[in-house]
Amino acid sequence: LLKKLNVIKKDILLDFDNVKKKPPRHERTMSVATVKAMFKEALKQSTPVSFHILQLLVYCGLRRTVLSKLLRSDIVRTEFIKNGESEFKYSVKARDAKGGKNRTIGVKTSVGQSLYDYSSSLTTEYLFPGKKDGHLGGMAVANRIKTLAKKVGKPEISMHWGRHAFASWSLHAGANLVDVSKALGHSTVAVRSLYL
């Protein structure tokens, strides 16, 4: 456009490769065995923080910035009566996510109970307390996942792989594409298709 307007003599974009056309350095898929190994390594640590970060990553698909700023109150347990018995549903509130959006993500009962018990055991405001701003920073969260990945022999794994795993596993389990897109906080289903 600038060339057509005679603002510049040469279209400088022609000198750049379109990086979107290049294949990724690593296929962003994590096997169930790899994730299980990462959970096993997380349980060996002196605190449960990495374990619960990994839970939120692979079962909710949260970005590291949202995950790092979760409050204890963002892990929600809702009681309901089924056949005269009390049961619970669990969800995670993702606040101030990308684009300033908020959303609620349902979590399977066993994971939700684990997260809820952990959050109830804390006396801090944040789910993952830290020295800076009261919570762990996004990079500190990412480093915990990277450490687990290296311990299981998969150093290429990053936080974002957890979002891919959440999306892929949800769809393979029969979840609706629109619902998965909403859970990931994507503005359109077209954005979600980049994860497949």
Describe this structure in a few short sentences:
The protein has 196 residues and is α+β, with helices and mostly antiparallel strands. The chain contains eight helices and three strands, in the order αααβββααααα. The longest helix is centred in the last third of the chain and has 14 residues.
Physical arrangement of strands within the biggest beta sheet: 1-2-3
- The termini sit apart by 33 Å
Q: Tell me the number of helical segments per DSSP (H or I, 4 or more residues long).
A: 8
How many individual β-strands?
3
How do the SSEs run, as a string of H and E? Answer: HHHEEEHHHHH
Shape verdict: globular
Share in β-strands = 5-15%
Q: What is the radius of gyration? A: 20 Å
Unreliable stretches covering 5 or more consecutive residues: none
